[in-house]
Amino acid sequence: MEQVGIKLEFDSLGRICIPKKIRNLYGLDSEVELLLSDEGVWLRSPRYTLVEREEQT
């Protein structure tokens, strides 16, 4: 897997902007999942599911 790194800063409201080139490269749409772990931060498109989710009613 090709690794791409980029340094981003938070704005005054705590947001980051993911450049369009990166979003297009990895197929990130208007919605992404932010995964936090001891190893780092991961972004993932919710259309790719690692574990089947349970529907909440």
Spell out the helices and strands N to C. Answer: HEE
Taking all residues together, what is the mean pLDDT?
A: 77
How many H/I helical runs?
Answer: 1
- Kindly report how far apart the N and C termini lie: 37 Å
Number of strands: 2
What structural class do you assign from the helix and strand content?
alpha+beta
Strand order of the largest sheet: 1-2
Largest β sheet strand count, sense and barrel closure: 2 strands, antiparallel
Low-confidence stretches: none
The value of Rg in angstroms is 13 Å
> Percent of residues in helical segments?
10-25%
Give the amount of beta strand, in percent. Answer: 15-25%
Protein model, in words:
Strand 1 and strand 2 form a beta hairpin. The chain starts with 19 loop residues before the first helix and ends in a 13-residue tail after the last strand. It has a two-stranded antiparallel ribbon. The chain is globular and about 40 Å long. The chain has a domain of 37 residues. The protein is built from one helix and two strands. The mean pLDDT is 77.
